[in-house]
Amino acid sequence: MNVPIIAGGVVAWFLPLVFTVYTAHMYGRSWWKWLLVAMVLPYISVAIIMAVVWKESQQREQAEEAKIAAERAARYTSRPEPAGSGEAPNASE
């Protein structure tokens, strides 16, 4: 048997597993479920987990932008107007 070829095959199968499980764990996903997916579909699982993470990060970013916009709107509407602005001049004076 050719040991380097077998070792290369094991490494080529093992690296996507590690990457998939690590990424799933870092983003709060069930690592053991992703391990099973990665064992069956090693390279496809990397693409799937990256798509899931990208979608989740986009949703978080949109939620953060909406929160910032709401805070800005609340600050703008709650500001007191400076004295003398917004009042029409009195015609009787």
From TrEMBL:
The chain crosses the membrane at residues 5-25, 31-54. It comes from Hymenobacter gelipurpurascens. Residues 71-93 are annotated as: Disordered. The keyword Transmembrane helix applies. Keywords: Membrane, Transmembrane, Transmembrane helix. This is Phospholipase_D-nuclease N-terminal.
